[in-house]
Amino acid sequence: MISKDPIDPSASNSFSGVLSEVIRMRSTVKLMIDAGIPFRVVLTKRAYGDMQLSIGSNVCLTFKASATHYLAMKNKKKERSYV
């Protein structure tokens, strides 16, 4: 779940980050969130528009650990990405 304000600050899977990239797809929008480690979030275009987010927006991520997938990124920095 992505929000502008913390939903449950005591949640163990809660991160604050900054929206660093927006990729518009056909019916969805991919967001890259920099929270110390990169997160990729997929929203519907409507949800993205309703949230009125833009590059540099502060966001909060809250999720169940079972809802994540590790993605190895193929780049020179060998960064890790979590979704």
Automatic annotation (TrEMBL):
Can you tell which superkingdom this protein's organism belongs to?
A: Archaea
What's its membrane topology? Peripheral membrane protein
Q: Where in the cell is it found?
A: Cell membrane
Gene3D superfamilies from the entry? 2.40.50.100
- Name the GO cellular-component terms: plasma membrane
Query: What name goes with this protein?
Result: TOBE domain-containing protein
